Amino acid sequence: MDIAEKVAEQMEKVADDIGNHLPDGRLKDALQIVEDMAQNTAEGAHVTGELISKVEEQVESWIQQINFVEEAKKTKEEDDGAAAKGQA
After folding, report:
1. How confident is the model at residue 78 (pLDDT cuts 50, 70, 90)?
2. Dihedral sign, CA of 26, 29, 31, 34?
3. Fewest 10 Å CB contacts: which of 6, 21, 70, 78?
4. Which own/partner contact pairs does 42-47 have at CB distance under 8 Å and 24+ positions apart?
5. How distant, in Å, are the alpha carbons of 73, 77, 81, 83 from that of 86?
6. What's the pLDDT tens digit per position in 2-53?
7. 18 near 31, Cβ under 8 Å?
């Protein structure tokens, strides 16, 4: 869980706790808006974190595939070079 998500969750909790002690009215309504925004921010941060993790995994997979292909090419070039020396 990243910092933005933690802060948003704490803000939501604080707004909820304060709201529970306020009488109905504009201030309580405004606090409800803050609580809703904090909840949406926390959810957005969580989804963003998951997306970043998936992108990192995919990039790592691509890097491994590229390294495998490069190693295969290098091995083939070395084998071809050794075969050419053997024929000379």
Report:
1. confident
2. negative
3. 21
4. 42/5, 42/8, 42/9, 42/12, 45/2, 45/4, 45/5, 45/8, 46/1, 46/5
5. 20, 14, 9, 5
6. 788 888 889 888 988 998 998 999 999 999 999 999 999 999 999 999 999 9
7. yes
Quickly count: other Cβ atoms within 10 Å of residue 29's Cβ. 11
**Cα 13 to the chain's mean position, in Å?**
24
HEC-encoded secondary structure of 25-74:
CHHHHHHHHHHHHHHHHHHHHHHHHHHHHHHHHHHHHHHHHHHHHHHHHH
Which tokens in the block code for residue 47?
């989804």
d(CA 44, CA 79) in angstroms, rounded, equals: 52
Ranges of each domain in the chain: 3-87
